[in-house]
Amino acid sequence: MSTIQQLTTHDSLPQQSLTTAKITYTENGHTKAILTSPIIDQYTDVSEPCMKFPQGVEILFYDSVQQLAGKVQAEYAIRYNQKQLIVAKQNVHIFDYAKNRELITEILYWDQTKKYIYNYDFTTLKDNQQVMYGDSLSLTEDMNHLELKQIRATLDYKEEL
Fold first, then answer.
1. Alpha-carbon separation of residue 38 from 2, 81, 86, 119, 139 (angstroms)
2. pLDDT tens string 56-109
3. Is residue 161 part of a domain?
4. pTM
5. Which of 12, 37, 46, 63 has its CA 20 to 30 A from that of 99?
6. At 108, which CATH number?
């Protein structure tokens, strides 16, 4: 009986759910990002309102000429509305197509107010010449300034055709 009460308490149920979601963000008529997720759950009647993506999320980012600039994928994510903080977890990938690089980690924090992405977890950085492994990451939202901290190893390689 206590399990049933826990599952049906006001705090555990979302106020809104959206399935097969596709949300397009625009500025001045130009697409900036497209978010897709199988399920989005909105919790508004809780002490910390949030939006959960329990089955993962993919966000595509576009540049000023509407070319695909980057992509973020995660198997789970949560956005804390008041803090404007996104936490992406489980198999997190960030692709920066302009610089031909990919970040892979298990958890990532995205402070939307400061336009800053970071973590304190093992991270892999790949580009077309190197693979680097580090224990934390800081990255500006526009992906122009990246710092992989506490680097464990750097492997150089050359792609062959």
1. 30, 20, 17, 25, 27
2. 999 999 988 889 999 999 999 999 999 999 999 999 999 999 889 999 999 999
3. no
4. 0.82
5. 37
6. 2.60.450.10
